[in-house]
Design goal:
Layout (H helix, E strand, L loop, with lengths): L3 H7 L11 H9 L10 E4 L2 H4 L5 H9 L6 E4 L6 H10 L18 E7 L5 H9 L6 E5 L3 H13 L5 E3 L5 H12 L5 E4 L12 E6 L6 H8 L9 E7 L4 H6 L31 H10 L6
Parallel strand pairs: 1-2, 3-8, 4-6, 4-7, 5-6, 7-8
Length: 295
């Protein structure tokens, strides 16, 4: 979120560890503002995003700018089929370490599913909000428009809240997050942008006002609470269209829905992964583009 000039100043002196986003790092490499010739270890956090079609060219550029004898590591809370294929290709002889609860919510998390009848989502939401919890509450929606609409309704009803989503001023987003982190505001309304990478230790409850379509997004959202052994609560406002996700979650801790499916009705098969298979040509093009910079 910082300017290119600020990033240049931050890297002008000697340093041991560099934390960067691929896009900004590629920009600095292209302008020869930084050299990665002496990098000994490269780590990709949130690997399922870094290996996605949108990020892969930049990720490959960064890899190509580093020495060939580089030690590399990938970290991810969720691993899709596409990312697993890339791990197999890029890390042919790599050691794979999986946590005991990989792909599941933690045991200290309590999940409550509430059925939305006749599209009446707001009354259920207000009922949930009336039940106080220790710590802040993160409310997740699926789109920026939904995020703004929920935040406006909350404000109109007298509930203080802040927004955290894409396509908003970065300084405003940063200030909103600080207010929530410091406990000045108890409600943060967001999209999946807040599902990853945020250092928040005061989240007592997550409310899925709109449930996501994909399992990995659900796990990231749920992972905002019940962290480091603490207790947490996830409340899902469930509609008929969420039945596929609910079926997937059966083996991942949340309880079954009280509302039963009609006799003879079958759960829909899981949709294809949102990650596209990366072609060999895309990898080759990105590798060809990346050239190590001399000091």
């Amino acid at each position: 979120g910082m300017t290119l000039e600020q990033a240049r100043r931050n890297t002008s002196a000697a340093f041991e560890v560099l934390l960067a986003t691929p896009g900004r790092l590629v920009q600095m490499l292209e302008q020869e503002l930084i050299s990665l010739n002496d990098v000994r270890m490269l780590i990709f956090d949130e690997a399922d995003q870094m290996m996605d079609q949108g990020f892969l060219p930049d990720s490959n550029y960064v890899v190509g700018a580093c020495p060939q004898d580089l030690q590399m590591a990938l970290f991810s809370a969720t691993v899709s089929t596409a990312v697993q294929e890339l791990m197999n290709n890029l890390f042919a002889s790599a050691e794979v370490i999986r946590s005991k609860g990989s792909g599941k919510v933690v045991s200290s998390l309590v999940t409550k599913n509430m059925i939305v009848e006749d599209g009446k989502r707001w009354p259920l939401f207000e009922k949930v909000l009336s039940q106080k919890v220790a710590g802040g509450t993160m409310v997740f929606t699926n789109t920026r428009e939904q995020c703004d609409k929920v935040a406006k309704e909350l404000t109109d009803k007298g509930h203080a809240c802040v927004i955290y989503r894409g396509e908003m001023d970065k300084n405003e987003r940063r200030m909103n997050l600080k207010k929530f982190r410091d406990g000045k505001v108890d409600l943060l309304v967001s999209t999946d942008l807040a599902g990853r990478g945020l250092d928040l230790d005061n989240v007592g409850r997550v409310i899925n006002y709109h449930l996501p379509k994909e399992m990995e997004n659900y796990l990231h959202r749920a992972g905002r609470t019940a962290r480091a052994g603490r207790k947490g609560l996830v409340v899902n406002l469930v509609t008929e269209r969420d039945q596929r996700l609910m079926s997937q979650l059966e083996g991942n801790k949340p309880p079954s829905l009280e509302k039963k499916m009609a006799p003879g009705q079958k759960a829909k098969a899981p949709s294809q992964s949102r990650f596209k298979k990366i072609s060999a040509k895309a990898n080759a093009d990105a590798k060809a583009k990346a050239k190590p910079r001399s000091k």
